[in-house]
Amino acid sequence: MLTHFLTVADVSRAADFYARILGGEIVRSGEPTIIKLANSWVIVNVGGGPTDDKPTVTLHPPEDPNAATSFMNIRVADVWACYKDWSSKGARFLTEPKDHGGEIRLLYA
Q: What is the pTM of this model?
């Protein structure tokens, strides 16, 4: 099982996206919130200072929405159907799906 931890500015908003729009199941609310999504878990939480298991690390949400240091790929059978469904639920995307030959890409903003 893969668990992906995301540092976010707004835990409720992030949890809503992964649960309501992508169809995940919130298995723990609060800080952190844990969402079961497909065959993985997504953990969303606010940033914070060092802890005993990461004594020199500070976590913070992305500061520039136009710069990315990580991303998550979600493979679906029909990207256009997902684009329409997720858009109707309030998801905002950078562009419509783009065909790159071997795959069609869609980036969530």
A: 0.83
